[in-house]
Design brief:
The structure is a homodimer of 321-residue chains. Chain A contains 14 helices and 10 strands. By secondary structure, chain A is α/β, with parallel strands linked by helices. Chain A has 2 domains: 197 residues, Rossmann fold; 92 residues, Rossmann fold (3-Layer(aba) Sandwich). In chain A, helix 1 crosses helix 8. The interface between A and B is medium-sized, with 34 and 34 residues.
Chain lengths: 321, 321
């Protein structure tokens, strides 16, 4: 499937940001390794999801484009598909759960997509879209299990390794598994000796459980701050991850917040909880990374700072009086 | 003085981060121009000040290094000098005003500097350091008016223009004037046609007033959220700015916060109020930038996110119960 990643890279490069790779001497000191951070929080729409969305929509037939596309997403895939659809002049319908971040819902609407609200349980999402597909002939663009989405997500690691060269390890978050699958395909082809590490919240450890059991075990009540990682592996992502990923590790909620705090305070990067789990995995020291070259993918940066700015403005007015 | 900037660049390059330049299609659309953002919030210690500190300390005599250095600063120069001194094995004493950000005070102490607390009025700072210089023979490293500090600050624009090529405009914040002076020296030499724009808070508009009057008019009660810009021009920075800067524009407190919000929410960059004033100046549309190549310097990213994370953890524990 590496050729699909290469083709995706060619197909989407005029739409996507080639995101920067940053380093941090503090992080290197803490981990006793050489870390490289691929910043997909700087991607358009604030997450890597825009890559897969562009890749999938670019490949639709004229008839499919005319009828429109549909998906379900808690936020990042929603925004990504909405913008990609807007750029390509395609109608997009997005089912978003009731507990989705209001900021992500607003951004998705801003890009011109039509939102339908569904329940919070993972299976509610699919129930919401199926009748609409039947009725209107929309094409479903699944947020993670679609092979075009996986190939698009693989362009993150493709670009990353082309820029920094050989890595010993690459850490990626895992939710539905699209990013981890794409990362594994691109990385193992470019650097066969690389170790692929998926990191997920302990409170949504379906990838860990599924790999251990040898079959898909969907997450039941994912109670994690990492809203982008509450979904479960699908048939394609499970197969690809099982074949190509070396290890899945899990991190606690506190480890996720501490990683996010490190990134915001020390590295000045706005990162969402789901985006910070890969750094949390590195900082958790479950693997011996001594003197290794370690690639870390930060998947997105869409957090709600409304409160922070409301308080800042309030304090400012108090001072200015 | 351009040679001093070039020499500083050579002298400090092994210590400093060569910070990335970012672009934003949203910002380009809003401003109808081509913006390049030099991110000194990614500099070591979180601001451009580290460049000047390294340049100044590298040039001390053996005797001066042995006796130690002293300065006064509300935070960014304090942290920068503390780390530069630590790296070079020099003792550093820093006078910080009572109203300095506790986070900046803690960071300065972490780098091993000795802190002395002084009053909040700009003149209190100098009163605090003078007797110590007399008694112990410390070398004063002024945060902005020192020519070695100015040359170090000039390496920001030097690196910036070497990377992105010719610019029509360059926007820099102005507080004590070290960054704006260095920016003007480096930029005018590399691109003689470039327009240098200094941006400062309306509530601390001493540079604007001083240039209008033709003499230094120190700021009296700077009531601005941009804590790094409450200081006034000095003899050197006034002279350099008067000769080389095309225009000083001012921005309101709300414009500063809105710019900061744009940078955090849309560009995923943690930027402090002082660091955001240059973007605020661009967004204020006081200048016609249509189709121009515009360089914008973000000077630093040291904001206090303690509250934000305390609230996040609290919310997380509520959810996890």
């Amino acid at each position: 499937m590496f050729r699909e990643v290469e083709a995706a890279h060619q197909r989407i490069k005029k739409f996507v940001n080639s995101t920067p790779v940053l380093t941090s001497s503090t992080l290197d000191k803490i981990t006793d390794s050489n870390c490289f951070i691929k910043c997909e929080n700087f991607q358009k729409t604030g997450s890597f999801k825009f890559r897969g969305a562009c890749n999938a929509l670019s490949q639709l037939s004229i008839m499919q484009k005319k009828k429109g596309v549909i998906t379900h997403s808690s936020g990042n895939h929603a925004q990504a598909l909405a913008l990609a659809a807007e750029l390509l002049g395609i109608k997009a319908i997005i089912a978003m759960p009731q507990d989705a971040s209001p900021l992500k819902v607003a951004a998705t609407e801003d890009y011109g997509a039509r939102i339908i609200t569904c329940g919070n349980h993972p299976t509610d999402r699919e129930k919401a879209v199926e009748p609409l597909i039947e009725k209107h002939g929309y094409t479903l663009i699944h947020p993670s299990n679609d092979l075009r989405i996986i190939a698009g997500a693989g362009t993150v690691a493709y670009e990353f390794i082309k820029e920094v060269g050989k890595l010993h390890y690459i850490f990626s978050p895992v939710g539905g598994g699209g990013l981890l699958s794409g990362t594994a395909i691109a990385s193992k082809h470019l650097v066969p000796s690389i170790k692929i590490i998926g990191v997920e919240p302990k409170n949504a450890d379906d990838a860990y459980q599924s790999l251990k059991a040898g079959r898909i075990i969907p997450v039941k009540n994912p109670n994690t701050i990492a809203d982008g990682l509450r979904s479960s592996l699908g048939s394609n992502t499970f197969r690809i991850i099982r074949q190509n990923v070396d290890q899945i590790i899990t991190v606690s909620e506190e480890e996720i917040v501490a990683a996010m705090q490190f990134l915001l305070e020390r590295m000045k990067l706005v990162v969402e909880p789901s985006g910070a789990v890969s750094i949390a995995g590195v900082l958790s020291k479950q693997l011996d990374l001594k003197s290794k070259r370690v690639g870390i993918i930060i998947s997105g940066g869409n957090i709600d700072l409304t409160d922070f700015f409301a308080r800042l403005r309030k304090r400012m007015h108090l001072v200015n009086q």
